[in-house]
Amino acid sequence: MLTSILPALILSVTILAPTATAPTTAAPAAVDAAAIDALVEQYREQTSLPGVAVAVTHGTGVVHAAGYGHTPDGAVVSAHTVMAAASVSKSFTALAVMRLVEDGRIALDDPVRAHLPEFTMAGPRAADITVRQLLDQTSGLSDTTHRSFSGPPVHTLAEAVAAMRDSEPAAEPGTRWEYHNPNFQVAARLVEVVGGVPFAEYLRRYVFGPLGMRDSGTADTERDLPPSARGHVKVLGLPVALPEPPAFGNGSGGVLTSAHDLAAWLIAQNNGGRGPDGTAVSTPRSIAETHTPSAVSESYGLGWFLGATPSGARLIDHGGDLFTSTAYQALLPDSGHGIAVMANTGLRHGDAQELGERLIALVEGRQLAPAGDPSAVVDAVLLVLAPVVAAAAVRGVLRSRRWADRRRSSARLVPLVLPLLLLATVHRLVGYLYRGRDVAWLQVPYLYPTFMVLLAVASLGGVAVLVARSVAVSARRADAG
């Protein structure tokens, strides 16, 4: 019984993936502070989202920048609450690189190693990787050959680059697109070395400062997250505050910012590099370059995804996922709107992107179906199964002597080890489900907490039955001898 339910449990993991909601037609709503507040509060009520910050801009003006709910330590979320931007950070790294390009200090098609000699990898392919290929994710670097999450921990950008020395690209540079966080860690280290100052300082001087983003900074690892930037996972639909699991993320996911600051950033992106007061942090040409698809992928530029909204309008966006928080930003060039969301629930729930899509629908006059979270039902089922599995294990232990008396083959004990083997390697299975992405074992409970509880119960129960039956078999053989 312990092993027969496991295939069904594995399949249940996929149920937790976010599902798209079908749009319905409705009269266009006014995109103003009141409409945004109503939409966000309705979403929070439907999903039990504890805290979120939102910015909506139009042209060079801020329509609304506000916070809702609370942080894990109970503080009220405001427009100035510092939260994690996660992979939205990639667009900041791309702009930092473009500043160096504008100054003539590097060129996008230069080999990375020409400016960053410390960037060495196994095999010859890495020598051909260009700066552009880091930013458009066509470098050939891959989670399949360099495990940045499950590998040895790193704490600085220099260490992140050094940790790649024994890895090799999985493909020839410039031949395929693959999302890989270390691309942007190498790019951020390039900014440090060529720019001559730490990456955080470079952003402060040339991006955050000129745009008036006084709340913003960067984090290297989860230890650098302030209390306001930590988040939750949901169990049975209820938020549970947890610390972010260990990981390095500067350059690829380390920006810390606020709704107030992201409003200025969105305006600069929609205004040729000029912020709300007209201060330029980039040129129109550089901004356009980051919003232009690569030669390999029509859906990715330099730190931005490129696509269309359900209404067919141009969409330039990027999501960001940590295990206890998410972020999302979107530019709508046709209407001149910008949207940013930071939510303090993890990637399992996708609240930032889901809410961002609803704000896009508001701008376009579309109405989406009410939000829902099917994971609460799945959690309930898995938690109900846990005591059932435990009871089956107790029954197996108590009847171990009877099992041995039936002279059953010891080979029939092998399935009892399977839950433990799955528990030990579950991060590899999850990585496969996430299309080959690298996942550390400690990150899996953040994705599937109740599944891991059930798997742990099954593992302990299987081991207990295995030991009890092995002892019973030995005792029967001793009696027979």
Could you explain the architecture of this structure?
- With 481 residues, this protein is of the alpha+beta class.
- It has 2 domains: 23-101 and 187-368, Beta-lactamase, CATH 3.40.710.10; 375-480, no CATH class.
- The chain has 16 helices and 13 strands.
- The strands form 4 sheets. Strands 3-2-12-11-10-9 form a 6-stranded antiparallel sheet, with helices on both faces.
- Strand 6 (231-235) and strand 7 (238-242) form a beta hairpin.
- Helix 2 runs antiparallel to helix 11 (351-364), helix 3 (89-102) crosses helix 8 (199-208) and helix 12 packs parallel to helix 16 (449-480).
- The chain is globular, with a radius of gyration of 25 Å.
- Residues 1-28 have low confidence and may be disordered.
* CATH homologous superfamily heading of the largest domain: DD-peptidase/beta-lactamase superfamily
Please state the structural category.
Answer: alpha+beta
**How widely separated are the two ends?**
32 Å
Overall residue-averaged pLDDT value:
92
Number of strands: 13
Task: Please give the CATH architecture of the largest domain.
Answer: 3-Layer(aba) Sandwich
Pfam families: Beta-lactamase (PF00144)
Keywords: Membrane, Signal, Transmembrane, Transmembrane helix
Signal peptide: 1-26
Protein name: CubicO group peptidase (Beta-lactamase class C family)
